[in-house]
Amino acid sequence: MSAQPTTDNRVAAPAGAAAAAPAAMAGAPREYLSFKLGNEEYGIDILRVQEIRGYEPPTRIANTQHFIKGVVNLRGVIVPIVDMRLRFQLPDVQYNSFTVVIILNIGHRTVGMVVDSVSDVLELAPGQIKPAPDFNGEIDASYITGLGTVKHGDVERMLILMDIEQMMMSPDMGLMDTDAAMH
Fold it and tell me: Using only C-alpha atoms, what is the Rg of the chain?
């Protein structure tokens, strides 16, 4: 008789531990790559980032969206380059020594996005992320996952957190074929 409660306890403990693990994971801090577009600072999931490169003019492709600058050959892979400043209709888009291309792994595709500059990699705990308010701007609010608050000493800054995968895979971007979007 006494062996049964021991067995039940052993079975119950791992089940309880397994149930607690996803909850702990959901509350775990996540890392974001922060970058600048105009006067705003954005953040994307660091796990989507393959590498960061200096800007080099891509080969233009006819009949593409105005914000798709063209393609580059990245170690044998043809990578479309999206200028996020043009995508968000920012004025005065200039290319300088700070302009970079963030190479992303999105779905089964590699895509580059041009940004003004890359700031740093930040770790944000769930308590540092607030829900995004409704926007009436050029950016589709469905691509914004929240607003991150980062403090350095007495200085606090806001980071617009984006679901870059959802944005790049959206039909209006024209980057993903229907087969790739379904997988």
Answer: 21
Spatial CA neighbour of 111 closest among 76, 71, 145, 75: 71
A 10 A CB-CB count for 17 gives 10
CA distance 90 to 84: 9
DSSP 77-130: EEEEEEEHHHHTT-SS----TT-EEEEEEETTEEEEEEESEEEEEEEE-GGGEE
Which structure tokens are listed for 79? Answer: 């990578």
* Cα 8 from Cα 2, distance rounded (Å): 10
pLDDT of residue 177: 63
Residue 109 confidence (pLDDT) above 50: yes
**Whether the Cβ atoms of residue 165 and residue 106 lie closer than 8 Å to each other:** yes
3-class state of residue 2 by DSSP: coil
What's the rounded Cα separation, in Å, for the pair 8 and 23?
A: 23
Q: Using the predicted structure, report yes or no on whether residue 105 has a pLDDT greater than 60.
A: yes
Higher pLDDT, 182 or 115: 115
Distance CA 168, CA 181 (A): 10
Contact partners, residue 121, CB within 8 Å, separation at least 6: 31, 32, 33, 34, 46
* Rounded alpha-carbon distances, angstroms, from residue 56 to 74, 89, 168, 170: 12, 21, 21, 25
